[in-house]
UniProtKB/TrEMBL annotation, chain B:
Residues 1-21 form the signal peptide. It comes from Pseudomonas extremorientalis. Gene3D superfamilies: Periplasmic binding protein-like II. This is Iron(III) transport system substrate-binding protein. Keywords: Iron, Metal-binding, Signal. Fe cation binds at residue 225. One of its GO terms (biological process) is thiamine transport. InterPro entries: ABC_2-AEP-bd, Ferric-bd. GO terms for cellular component: outer membrane-bounded periplasmic space. GO terms for molecular function: metal ion binding; thiamine binding; thiamine pyrophosphate binding.
Automatic annotation (TrEMBL), chain C:
The keyword Membrane applies. InterPro entries: AminoethylPonate_ABC_perm-1, MetI-like, MetI-like_sf. It is found in: Cell membrane. Keywords: Membrane, Transmembrane, Transmembrane helix, Transport. Residues 71-267, 348-543 form the ABC transmembrane type-1 domain. This is Iron(III) transport system permease protein. PANTHER family: POLYGALACTURONAN_RHAMNOGALACTURONAN TRANSPORT SYSTEM PERMEASE PROTEIN YTEP, PROTEIN LPLB. Belongs to the binding-protein-dependent transport system permease family. It comes from Pseudomonas extremorientalis. It is a multi-pass membrane protein. NCBIfam families: PhnU2. Pfam families: BPD_transp_1 (PF00528). CDD domains: TM_PBP2.
Length: 354, 341, 564
């Protein structure tokens, strides 16, 4: 048995996976590359196909067509036991009649008793549950159960780790803490990981890259930064983070007409003749001290205090009926006083969608 | 260390040698009353020590059905004690091996199959009898019936039990007798009237008498063997032989065609017809297939045999199906009782 | 690296276990269930003269007024029985699982009484209680013989069957759901409607269907206490036995198959809507103390148990009475079985053998079969065929199944003929006959397990058969032991199939009971039934005691830790 904590992670390739359930297309020609040691999140609303994709990779579902590669092995048609991965289910699926020790050691066949015990001890140390060997899952808290399930999945030193909504059963406070822990663990082990979640905060926190899925397709596959700053489709833009939508029609190569305003666009703003502009709230400057481009009058509607920042809902004077959001530092609030303000929408922050 | 082993081996060999001492096992199907089986078997095996009887006992209907179900692969070697009316059906199906037992000439002509050699040979006769519970009769103020017609009196409503002719040989012999005695039209009329008084139809021939003995129903239409036995055990029964005459059937013996143990089966047939066997039957039945031996039971009148009606077995056998169909149509399963049909 | 070798061994092991196991199960079911059934159809539709079969006869049968009357009677009886039994069983099960009444083990034990004796026994007891010479005759205005006799007898006979299903469903509850409900201000009634009822709804329908089918296909009770109230099962018996019309019997048997098809449909439909499973995170439910609730339920339980005790006590008493009703002195002469056909004691010994073999072999086969069908994917057609086949025995009256066996195993040229009349065939027939309830218990228990257990095991490269033995069986041990007990006791009390399959060597105790009652020896019948009763009860207690230690060990993980 391998005494190293885990295998070096293997890269994973998904090629053209197609899966239908009756008339419903769950996965529509999905392709993905995961580098060795990377943590990739499959993010999307329910029904988008992320769990189906995970299960196809695990061999728990059979894809209609397409290939899967783990390392240099073609695992497309292999049964689950022949692939080489560990999986953490939403419900953890811990065996209630086995102790923590027995659960973790479940996949360690073909090794002597001492080796198994040693390995189990290693895993418990890894997840911080030393001393719980003889307990039963029913006696542990949710977070502890998750860690046991993780330890069990990792014990046979697989080259791929699959996580199916691992945090959904935990409360928010514990969640963030565990996200960080999990991420650190994953980095330390260097194990290729694929995680399914519908929670964008988790994805942003943990992932090296995020695949945003919708209706069986991958809409964008990029780093969190890119996804946030340069969403590839309106869906991605809306799904991750907050955003403002401004309907426009093209005036010229560099300018767009938004309501009664002529806004300057960035140089690489594409050629769309009309559509919507997308702008993040935090990119908008309110009452900027110096003159900025795209400076327009606006009317404050409501300010919400969020602790470390404020959210302001406002309307551009020349674009009535379109409530927009901006973010302010709390210090900026008293300065507002008046209802009428000036807002600047930097060209750089305006993304064009047809 | 080997001594105990050798001992065990020797004992085992002794046993197996014994087993191989060629005792033929004969599978005998029968509808004889359960209490009679032990005695008959013992007597036969004493006379034929190389044959061992394995009984398969059930009521007439079930045994007949079993035999027919196994037509293609008979399990029985012989039949000892089944209604002749059933054996006639088996004969029609070609399942019997005609054989003339040694003492055939002593058997009365009416009490054996007409063919030569006969397909079946009778043992004894069993006839209809009314079991009447005197204690219950007194409690419920019932008068004692003396004829079949009496049973249709309204005071007996719900108080009579009789066997269902579809399942019981005794029941069938009753119906056959009434139809022969009263004629077709009046026979059915009689049964219509009787039906109003029937509390229950049961499946076995002896049960009505046992129910009468326990007072569950005061009047049971049954046959003489259980009546005599129960009375001897102290049941408060009066044994009534109705005026018009008693229906009856013959218990008979036959060899099954295709049996692997033909010799042993024929030995059985021989024994069944022999005087020794007749002595056995004498204890249980008043009328035997071999005339002249019978001694009437103390509980039954001396002229018992004369009370039997003239029975046309050929007619009964031929019409069995249609009689039963008609009977079932009228009494078995309609909620409305069809009167005067 | 050892990885590739491990993988292929686990894989082949699993393929043998899953596919091989399913194929073997299919073969066994095919021979034990399907072939005899086909033999019945063949007999029913063959127009052999005098048999009452064939299409013309079938049409005649179905349109006759007699048939409608029989069908009406059977339906009336079965619906009444189901409508009475299922609510009673639900209340009883609820009392045992969700309240804190004392003495639960005693009530549970008593509820099993009707299982321990042939179905004739309640009938016999009812006659002694309410018959014309019955002890409590005055209580009843009408004759016990007839509709109410059958209904009462069947209610008692089918009660434990319904109870078993409902107990299994009500036993697994997640405490967190109830905590959630009460914290939202839901009354106990509301919690019941929104949590308990949906979780047990499927089991209620299953129980209803089972009781209905058991009743409509039973002939033990109607034979003893039905009087002239005819039902279809009895009609099949009479068609075959009284009139030698196998075709007709087979036709009626085919009619009696309809409830099974219906049950299967309902079960399949409900299956699609089924969601919940017990995950490793479920917390065991501890009922909240409530004196009023406990008092009410205790009363109900006591009433039901009192009725059961009365009936069975009466049967035991009547077996000791010398000559009912004129000589009430006690004696054991009814127990002297030497004069009974086949030798009563031989019948008893045979029944013991049958019961042991059926229980041990049957439980292993059925539970493993249920596991393969429920928890493994990939052989959809095979699974469907297996599931359909496993439901068939429930609807086939034991009588018709027995007939089917006679027709099939007695065919000229059938190589399996060598089994006819042997104990082996009786074991196979009995397992087949009682397959469905045992399987439903197994399936109910298996469905409560997390659906992802197998996936987790596969991902850990653990072979499924090992998972089955290490995880599934220990968790489902209570259900498994219930199945062993059920099969043992059912085999002790079975009569309707065996009545056609026994040979002089293999006569059974329950058949002896029927023979004795048919012949009017009711005392002897009561005696043999009592013997069966005490044997079954004794063995059940023995089983319970022997398994208590094993259960205690595996129960450690079912308890919630303090201070959780």
């Amino acid at each position: 048995m391998n005494t190293a904590l885990t295998q070096p992670g293997a890269p994973m390739k998904v090629r053209g996976i197609q899966k239908r359930f009756g008339a419903f297309t769950a996965l529509d020609n999905v392709s993905l590359d995961v580098a060795a040691g990377e943590l990739v999140c499959l993010l999307g609303p329910s029904g988008c196909g992320k769990t189906t994709l995970l299960r196809c990779i695990a061999g728990l579902e059979r894809q209609d067509s397409g290939e899967l590669y783990l390392g240099d092995r073609d695992v497309s048609l292999l049964p689950p036991q022949a692939r080489d991965y560990g999986i953490l289910f939403q419900s953890y699926a811990l065996f209630p009649n086995l102790t923590v020790e027995a659960n973790i050691g479940y996949g360690l066949t073909g090794s002597g008793r001492d080796e198994v015990r040693q390995r189990v001890g290693q895993m418990l140390e890894l997840v911080g549950l030393v001393g719980s060997e003889k307990k039963y899952p029913g006696q542990l808290s949710g977070g502890q159960q998750q860690r046991v399930a993780l330890a069990r999945a990792l014990a046979p030193a697989p080259s791929l780790l699959l996580l199916d909504e691992p945090m959904s059963a935990l409360d928010a406070r514990v969640r963030e803490h565990l996200c960080t822990e999990l991420r650190q663990l994953q980095r330390r082990l260097g194990i290729t990981t694929l995680m399914v979640t519908h929670n964008q905060d988790e994805a942003m926190l943990m992932a090296d890259r995020i695949a945003v899925m919708n209706n069986g397709k991958v809409e964008q596959y990029a780093t969190p930064q890119e996804i946030y700053d340069r969403p590839a489709t309106p869906f991605v833009a809306e799904f991750v983070g907050q955003g403002n939508w401004l309907p426009f029609s093209r005036n010229s190569a560099s300018h767009a007409q938004v309501g009664g305003m002529n806004m300057r666009l960035a140089d690489d703003a594409g050629m769309a003749k009309s559509g919507r502009l997308f702008c993040r709230p935090e990119a908008i400057s309110v009452n900027p001290p110096v003159h900025e481009e795209n400076l327009f009058p606006a009317k404050v509607r409501e300010i919400t205090f969020l602790g470390n920042r404020c959210r302001m809902s406002f309307e551009l004077e020349q674009l009535p009926g379109h409530p927009l959001l901006a973010e302010l530092a709390p210090e900026a609030m008293p300065r507002l006083g008046a209802q009428h303000i000036w807002v600047a929408l930097p060209p750089r922050s305006l993304q064009v969608f047809a | 260390m080997f001594k105990p082993l050798a001992l065990v081996a020797a004992v085992l060999t002794a046993f197996s040698v014994n087993a191989f001492a060629a005792k033929t096992e004969l599978t005998v199907y029968t509808a004889l009353e359960a209490e009679q089986l032990k005695t008959y078997k013992k007597a036969f095996e004493q006379a034929n020590p190389d044959v061992e009887i394995k009984w398969v006992r059930d009521s007439t209907g079930i045994i007949t059905a079993k035999l027919l179900a196994e037509k293609d692969r008979p399990q029985a070697d012989a039949v000892w004690g089944l209604a002749a009316s059933s054996l006639a059906i088996l004969d029609q199906q070609g399942m019997l091996d005609n054989y003339a037992p040694k003492d055939l000439d002593k058997i009365g002509k009416n009490y054996r199959d007409a063919a030569n050699p006969p397909a079946w040979v009778g043992m004894d006769v069993w006839a209809a009898t009314i079991c009447f519970n005197t204690v219950e009769a007194e409690k419920q103020g019932l008068t004692k019936p003396v004829s079949w017609q009496d049973l249709t009196k309204p005071e007996y409503k719900g108080k009579i039990v009789m066997p269902n002719p579809a399942s019981s040989g005794t029941g069938f012999l009753d119906v056959s007798a009434w139809l022969q005695t009263f004629g077709d039209k009046q026979g059915w009329q009689y049964m219509d009237d009787l039906h109003q008084n029937i509390g229950q139809y049961v499946h076995s021939g002896s049960k009505p008498c046992k129910l009468a003995a326990s007072g569950e129903f005061p009047i049971g239409i049954s046959f003489e063997y259980p009546a005599v036995q129960l009375k001897r055990q102290g049941a408060p029964l009066d044994i009534i032989l109705p005026k018009e005459g008693l229906g009856w059937d013959i218990e008979a013996t036959a060899v099954i065609k295709g049996t692997a143990h033909k010799d042993a089966a024929q030995k059985l047939a021989d024994f069944s017809a022999s005087p020794a066997a007749m002595e056995l039957y004498k204890d249980n039945f008043a009328v035997l297939a071999q005339p002249g031996i019978a001694k009437p039971q103390t509980e039954l009148p001396a002229d018992y045999e004369q009370r039997l009606i003239k029975n046309d077995f050929a007619w009964a056998s031929k019409n069995r199906d249609s009689i039963l169909t008609e009977w079932r149509k009228r009494y078995d399963g309609k909620s409305e009782k069809v009167a005067g049909q | 690296m050892t990885l590739p070798r491990q993988v292929s061994r686990a894989e082949t092991g699993d393929r043998v276990f899953v596919v091989g196991g399913k194929l073997l199960w299919l073969l066994l079911l095919g021979i034990a269930v399907l072939m005899p059934l086909l033999a019945i159809f063949w007999r029913g539709f063959s127009s052999e003269a005098g048999q009452g079969g064939g299409l013309v006869a079938a049409r005649e049968l179905v349109t006759s007024a007699n048939f409608h009357w029989l069908l009406g009677n059977s339906l009336k009886v079965s619906l009444s029985v189901a409508a009475i039994v299922v609510p009673l069983a639900y209340l009883f099960a609820y009392a045992l699982q969700r309240t804190l009444i004392p003495g639960k083990a005693i009530w549970r034990g008593m509820s099993l009484l009707p299982l321990m004796a042939p179905s004739m026994l309640p009938g016999i007891a009812l006659v002694y209680l309410f018959g014309n010479q019955g002890m409590l005759r005055g209580l009843l205005s009408e004759n016990i013989y007839g509709f109410w006799g059958i209904v009462l007898g069947e209610v008692i006979y089918t009660f434990p069957h319904a109870l078993m299903i409902l107990l299994s469903a009500l036993s697994l509850a997640d405490a967190r759901l109830f905590d959630a409900a009460s914290s939202m201000g839901a009354s106990p009634a509301r919690a019941f409607r929104s949590i308990t009822w949906p979780a047990t709804r499927q089991a209620v329908f299953a129980a209803f269907c089972l009781v209905f089918t058991l009743t409509i296909t039973d002939f033990g009770v109607p034979v003893v206490v039905g009087g002239d109230y005819q039902v279809l099962a009895l009609e099949a018996y009479k068609a075959v036995v009284g009139q030698q019309q196998f075709g007709r019997g087979a036709l009626i048997g085919m009619v009696l198959l309809l409830p099974a098809l219906f049950s299967f449909g309902v079960d399949a439909w409900l299956r699609r809507r089924h969601g919940d499973s017990m995950s490793g995170r479920a917390q065991v439910f501890q009922p909240v103390p409530s004196a009023l609730r406990d008092a009410c339920y205790l009363t109900i339980v006591l009433l039901i148990c009192a009725v059961l005790l009365l009936v069975f006590g009466m049967a035991v008493y009547s077996s000791l009475v010398k000559f009912w009703p004129y000589n009430l002195s006690l004696s054991l002469n009814h127990y002297q079985f030497e004069d009974t056909a086949g030798g009563g004691w031989l019948a008893y010994r045979n029944s013991l053998t049958l019961a042991l073999c059926t229980a041990l072999i049957g439980s292993v086969l059925i539970f493993t079969g249920a596991y393969l069908m429920e928890k493994t994917k990939g052989q959809k057609g095979l699974n469907l065929a297996l599931r359909m086949l496993s439901f068939v025995p429930m609807a086939v009256p034991g009588l018709v199944l027995g007939l089917g066996y006679v027709f099939f195993f007695n065919l000229n040229g059938n190589p399996l003929h060598v089994f006819y009349g042997t104990m082996t065939l009786l074991v196979v027939c009995t397992i087949a006959h009682y397959l469905t309830t045992a399987q439903m218990t197994a399936t109910t228990a298996l469905r409560q397990l997390d659906a992802e257990f197998e996936a987790a095991a596969l991902s850990l490269k653990a072979p499924l058969y090992r998972h089955y033995l290490k995880v599934t069986v220990p968790i489902c041990l209570p259900a498994l032991l219930d199945i062993v007990r059920y099969l043992f006791v059912s085999a002790m009390t079975t009569v309707s199939a065996a009545i056609f399959l026994y040979s002089p060597d293999t006569i059974l105790a329950a058949v002896a009971v029927l023979n004795m009652d048919d012949a009017g020896n009711v005392g002897g019948a009561a005696a043999m039934s009592t013997l069966i009763l005490f044997t079954s009860a004794g063995v059940s207690l023995l089983l319970a005691w022997a398994s208590r230690g094993a259960l205690r060990r595996s129960q450690a993980w079912r308890q919630t830790a303090p201070g959780q």
